[in-house]
Design a protein that fits this description.
alpha+beta
Length: 130
């Protein structure tokens, strides 16, 4: 079976379905087999004060669903609107493909994949704030 593989450093923390889990003293490799598990590495978490670009705001909104702080059904419209705003700015083919993947993932309630697609977008501070 395939699944999400997490390679963890010593004492690394991550969230699985709102539960904080900490790795032991050694490096570890975990395979998450449940397809609908919400997982977020805490080292990758975006803090509210650093959500200062349109891409980071979209990532942060997606992250809030993964952490259980926003209801997925309530957040869908907001996420789709943010992704649509990004598609007005990013018109190159690679960005369009990433944003399409993010949209498809949100529509399929797969917020982890949406976050993954959004993270590949540029986050330069030179992007006009939306």
């Amino acid at each position: 079976m395939s699944g999400l593989i997490l390679k963890l450093g010593p004492k690394e923390r991550f969230l699985i379905n709102q539960a904080v889990v900490e790795n032991g003293d050694r490096r570890a490799r975990l395979t998450i087999l449940s397809p609908n598990a919400n997982i977020l590495r805490l080292r990758d978490a975006i803090h509210p004060e650093t959500a200062n670009t349109p891409v980071r705001r979209a990532c942060y909104a997606t992250q809030l669903v993964l952490t259980g702080d926003h209801d997925p059904d309530d957040a869908k419209f907001q996420l789709l609107r943010r992704i649509e705003e990004l598609s007005q700015v990013f018109t190159d083919p690679d960005s369009r493909a990433n944003l399409a993947r993010a949209t498809e993932a949100v529509l399929a309630d797969n917020f982890y994949q949406s976050l993954k697609a959004l993270r590949t977008q540029p986050t330069s501070a030179s992007i006009v704030m939306l």
